[in-house]
Amino acid sequence: xxxxxxxxxxxxxxxxVDDLSFTVEPGKVTGFLGPNGAGKSTTxxxxxxxxxxxxxxxxxxxxxxxxxxxxxxxxxxxLDADAMHPGRTGRGHLRVAAxxxxxxxRRVDEVLDRVGLAAAGQRRIKGYSLGMRQRLGIAAALLxxxxxxxxDEPVNGLDVDGVRWIRDLLRGFADEGRTVxxxxxxxxxxxxxxxxVVVIGRxxxxxDVSVAEMLRGLGGARVRVRTPDPDRxxxxxxxxxDDVTRSGxxxxxxxxxxxxxxxxxxxxxxxxxxxxxxxxxxxxxxxVQLTEGAAEYAGRTTTITATAGAAS
Length: 312
Ligand SMILES: Nc1ncnc2c1ncn2[C@@H]1O[C@H](COP(=O)(O)OP(=O)(O)OP(=O)(O)O)[C@@H](O)[C@H]1O
Known about the structure:
Layout: E1 2-11, E2 14-24, E3 28-33, H1 40-47, E4 55-60, E5 75-78, H2 90-100, H3 105-114, H4 130-142, E6 148-152, H5 160-175, E7 179-183, H6 187-193, E8 196-201, E9 204-210, H7 211-216, E10 222-226, H8 230-238, E11 243-248, E12 251-255, H9 259-268, E13 275-278, H10 283-296, H11 301-307
Parallel strand pairs: 3-7, 3-8, 5-6, 6-7
Antiparallel strand pairs: 1-2, 1-4, 8-9, 10-12, 10-13, 11-12
Helix pairs in contact: 2-3, 3-4
The structure holds adenosine-5'-triphosphate.
């Protein structure tokens, strides 16, 4: 469990994190989302005890990480896969951390094996691909077998196989009952892997909701329809739909009416339909809606968190 309470960080006149409170539960993958500069990395650094809060606190498994003698037993983190000594071998890199934590050498081999680097452990890190460095970073996070894992943008720059591997790994950690917090810009990826999302904007909490709840917040069914007579169809649908918008010269997007209802309505009026499909509800769209709201309600974030089902 991670508990963030009224966490605030000022860099001079810049408030990077502003009275932020949320908890991250075990047994789930929690996505940590926010636009560039929202304060994600600063928050993660404070959670890990690498940066000191101006006020408030962050606890991992009930403890502050700063000053822990053997932090790898409490929390494992992947922050920057490039912050490794390129001249060392993968195994050598892990041995340094294992030694300072009093861990046996066999633990190094266990984690190398878990991340699929057993065969590459003797090679120097400068010869590793980005994907291999990410794997090594994750192996380092796992060394102390911690209950809590924190990953900052773990799929950045990875190919399709690497992304899928990370996804399965994160799910596996959550299924083992660990607490998994993972920051990402990739909404589509978060939709596939996260159970819960914590969204921040300008250092403040925007939402703390389950992915399912966030998608439900988008409202009812959404349908795309193409017709040579969008004006007439738009008028015909407007009475019953929640929203009808023009998404192209001959295209409408309709919210709140299912595809059969849209098709039937067009048929009844003799309006030709050239295409009719469901629009998949995406976390990305829910996120845009939510963060647009955050800008609109800047300074009133408690209103948004309350409607999103979270207390701030
Ligand atoms: N060491 C620092 N000194 C001064 N300002 C900083 C420092 N670190 C972060 N900031 C500022 O704090 C704010 C939050 O930055 P942070 O890196 O935490 O955001 P982020 O959400 O992780 O962004 P990104 O997705 O771009 O990594 C930004 O305005 C940034 O410029």
